[in-house]
Amino acid sequence: MNERLMELVSPRVGLVRDIAPQGRSADEPMPPYLYTATLSNYDFRVASKSDRMAAGKGMTKDEAITSAIGEATERYCAYHWDPQRTFVAKASDVQSRYITPQDCVLYSDRQYNTFEWPHPRYTPDRELLWLNGNDVLDDSTVALPASLVYLLFPPPRMEDYFAPSTSNGLAAGPSRAGAILSGLCELMERDAMLIAWLNRLPAVELQFDHSPEIPGRIFRHYAHFGINVRAFLMPSDLPAATVMAISFEDDPSRPANVIGLGCHPDPNIALLKALFELCQGRPAEGSRFQSKPPQGRLDKYEDVHTLDDHSSFMSQMNRREEFAFLWQSNEKKRIEELPNPSSGDIAQDLKRCATELAVKGHRPAYAVLTTPDLAGYDIHVVRTIAPGLQPVHFGHGQERLGGKRLYELPQELGLSGRVHTESDLNPCPHPLA
């Protein structure tokens, strides 16, 4: 582990107040190792425990601690709005390439016409705050909408509140290239999951129970306790594999359905990431299932409002059939049958992913958010943006329905005979928290 990172941990003066193992029961496997990092009160506001808590996972204890500190610094840096880096302008007055809020996929006409819709409609003639980032491929300047880069609410200008800013595309890593690749993988992961979910697209079920490696060991561990774990390759045209792992459990006192997502150019790593995220999510979901039972609280789609509501709603036994479209094709493949385009080199994988995204019209950009006080700590925090990809949302009715890809991709993949419309979309809230 990077010893310098531990300099950031102190109950009195640390950016991170505390590092601790994440609690879990005996029916949870190890690895992954799971740790939490508690952020300090760096922004001088009253915040919930979940706002201060960051979670990390890894093959070893050191990896998990490093991951938790990285998650904490990612949030810390993303909250630090730097007014010296921003400028107000209309898109037509920006001197470089730019990505507009509309390019980031906003809302449909129907949503904007909804009574008291909270977000203004973006038009090219309106001024907004920009922040200069960089093109992933050639590092040229790209102006980005500042309100969708920083993780801050309210933004300095409420007229720029075109959509809630989420952690989608935020990433931290020991190198800038590694952080950018992680950010792009998260963008591709959310795009693949949401398009599949909202269009109820069938997926390929991955068979890994036979594996002598960690994925097979996790499967067999859970099976010993009567927990069935399945994994599905999301249908997509993007240059990385996205896997959804789901645990199904029949004990009425515990969450019936919990998911984990993973994305990487190497499908084996994507599967491992999905399983590790599942292992990380299950203890937290189990605790929430007991302390804030979803029954009677989250009965209808319309009851889902917050990030945690999504996974809690879908954790109920009577929601299991909402997943059934994933296995409707009955197509199965062993994990080793999947093509693996990864070179194993971060820089080469990043270049290939960025190039293929650009060819498809999603040329990616990034903004460095690492704060000056973290210089020298081998921490690189970035926000990545790939125009046109479907972004994540939280809350029923808050889906970002203003893009084209959501409706056109099912036909392009050969999974539908026509372009879809809003009326075709799945009304069930997605299961991701």
Secondary-structure topology with pairs:
Blueprint: E1 16-21, E2 33-39, H1 49-52, E3 53-58, H2 61-78, E4 86-89, E5 97-98, H3 109-112, E6 128-135, E7 141-145, E8 170-173, H4 176-199, E9 204-207, H5 214-224, E10 228-233, E11 241-248, E12 257-264, H6 267-291, H7 307-314, E13 332-334, H8 346-359, E14 365-368, E15 380-385, H9 405-412
Parallel strand pairs: 5-7, 9-13
Antiparallel strand pairs: 1-2, 2-3, 4-6, 6-7, 6-14, 8-15, 9-10, 10-11, 11-12, 14-15
Helix pairs in contact: 4-8, 4-9
Task: Give an account of the 3D structure.
- The chain folds into two domains: 77 residues, Double Stranded RNA Binding Domain (2-Layer Sandwich); 258 residues, 2-Layer Sandwich (Double Stranded RNA Binding Domain), CATH 3.30.160.
- Helix content is 27%, strand content 19%.
- It contains nine helices and 15 strands.
- The strands form three sheets. Strands 4, 5, 6, 7, 8, 14 and 15 form a seven-stranded mixed β-sheet that branches.
- A hairpin with a 7-residue loop joins strand 10 and strand 11.
- Helix 4 packs across helix 8 and helix 4 crosses helix 9.
- The protein starts with 15 loop residues before the first strand and ends in a 21-residue tail after the last helix.
